[in-house]
Amino acid sequence: MRLAGYLRREALISIGAVTTVLMLIMATNLLARALSLAADGTLPAALVPNLLGFNLVKMLMYVVPVATFIGLMFALGRLNRDSEQTIMRSSGFGLWRITGSLLPLGIPLALLTAWISLFGWPMAEQARDRMVEGAQSDYIGQQVPVGRFIEANEGRLVAYVGASENGGYQRIFLFDRAEDGSIAIESAPSGVMVEEDGQRYIALEDGRRIGGTVGAADWNRLDYERHLMRLPGQTEADGGQVRVRSSGELWASGSPNDHAELFERLSQGIIALVLVLIAIPLAQAPPRSGRYGRLFWAFLIYALYFNVVPLVSDGIEANHYGLAGAVVLAHGGFLLLWGALFWSARGGWGRLRSLWKGRREYA
User: Fold this and answer.
1) Residue range 188-193: average pLDDT?
2) Between residues 85 and 152, which one has the greater pLDDT?
3) Gap between the Cα atoms of 93 and 73, Å rounded
4) pLDDT at site 202
5) How far apart are alpha carbons 207 and 165 in whole angstroms?
6) What percent of the chain is modeled with pLDDT above 70?
7) Phi, psi of 283 (to 5 degrees)
8) Where along the chain do its domains lie?
9) By the 8 A CB rule, do 316 and 260 touch?
10) Is the torsion defined by CA of 290, 291, 295, 297 positive or negative?
11) Strands 157-165 and 168-177
12) What pTM, to 2 d.p., does this model score?
C-alpha cells in the first residue's frame, strides 16, 4: 500500500539522519583517542584508520537502537504535527496498520543489531586485538621512543633511552617496582635490541643494578656485562589468547559471568525491536503539543532501559536468576509499557473514564 511505503520512507530518512549524526559524533571521539595513542607512541599511526573502523562496529550496536527510536519519534512527530496521521486514522489507517507498516523496517534493523552484538562485534574485537598486539610489538621493536620516559604495569616499570645510534641505544635507565614493594634501579651506557623466544628485549651492556626495599638495609649492587630487559609496552606472551570470547563459547559456558555477558549482547537486538514498538504509540501526541512534544519521554524511557539491562546482568553474575529469567525480567516490563501506551493511544483512558462516569451516574 502506498501509505505503508510512505511511512517507511519517512521513517528511514529520519533514522538515517539520526544515525549519521550520532556516528559522526562517535567517530570524532574515537579518532581523537586514537590520535592521542599514536602521538604518545603507544599505537602506530598507520593503524589509526583500522582501529577506527573496528571501534565503529561496536558503536553501531548501541547507535542503531537509539537512532531507530529517535528517528521514528521525529518522523511520526512530524506526521502528527502536520495532521497527516489524523487523516490516516480517518481513512482507517490506525495504530495497528501503522505498526504493521513499520515492523518490516524495524525487524531487519533489530536483526542487524543482534547480529552485530552476538557475532560481528566479537569477531571484530578479536581481529582488532590480534592486529594491535602484533603491530605494537613490531612498532616497539623497530622504533624505541628516545628522549622521554615510557612506562608500563601502571607505572611500576619505567624506562628512559637517551639516544639511538648505529642500531643501538645509549644512556639507558630503568626503574622497576615489584608488587612486594621492592625496587630495582638499573642503568647502562649502551644496549641493543635482541629477540628471544619470540619476544624482543633490550640487552643492556656494562651496566649496574641496585635493588632493595625502601626503609630496609639489605640493598645490593650488581655490576654486569650483559642483561636482558623487556621494554615497557610489549605484550606478554599469552599463546595468542584474545580477551573477547565468541557468543557460542559464552552460551556453552556454565559460568554466571559468561551468561551475564551473553545476556547483554542478546539484549541489544531485543532493545531495538521493543523501542520500535514503543515509539509508535508514544509519538501519538495531541496536535498542539508540537513536533517534539514527546521527545523528553522518549529520552527518559531509553535512559531507563539502558540502565535496566546492566542491573539485570549484575543479577545473573550474582546467580539470582538464569538467562531466560533475565530476558523476561529486563524486557517484559517494557513490553507491558508498550501495551499500556498502545491502549492509551487508542483511547483506552477515555473509554475507561466514560465507563466509570456511567457507573457513577447509574449508582
Assistant:
1) 85
2) 85
3) 18
4) 78
5) 18
6) 81
7) -75, -5
8) 2-138+241-362, 145-230
9) yes
10) positive
11) antiparallel
12) 0.70
Q: How many residues does the chain have?
A: 363
* pLDDT tens figures, 130-148: 776 666 555 555 556 677 7
Query: What's the pLDDT at 313?
Result: 93
Residue that is written with C-alpha cell 529486563 in the block = 330
| Per-residue model confidence (pLDDT) at position 133 | 66
DSSP-assigned states of every residue in 31-70: HHHHHHHHHTTSS-GGGHHHHHHHHHHHHHHHHHHHHHHH
Strands 220-230 and 199-213, by their bridges, are antiparallel
Per-residue exposure over 66-76, b if at least 16 CB sit within 10 Å of its own CB, e if not: bbbbbbbbbbb
* C-alpha closest to that of 147 among 166, 158, 162, 134: 162
Region of 212 please: left (phi>0), alpha (psi -120 to 50) or beta: left
Cα dihedral across residues 317, 319, 320, 324: positive or negative: positive
Q: Is the per-residue pLDDT at 125 higher than 80?
A: yes
- Residue 76 near residue 283 (C-beta atoms within 8 A): yes
pLDDT at 258 over 80: yes
Distance separating the N- and C-terminal Cα atoms of the chain: 48
Specify the residue for cell string 581523537: 32
Q: Calculate mean pLDDT across residues 76-86.
A: 79
Running DSSP on this structure, what letter comes out for residue 120?
Answer: I
| Integer-rounded Cα radius of gyration of the chain | 30
Instruction: Give backbone dihedrals phi and psi of 90, rounded to 5 degrees, phi first.
Output: -70, -20
Check residues 33 and 238 and name the one with the higher pLDDT.
33
Strand partners, 182: 213
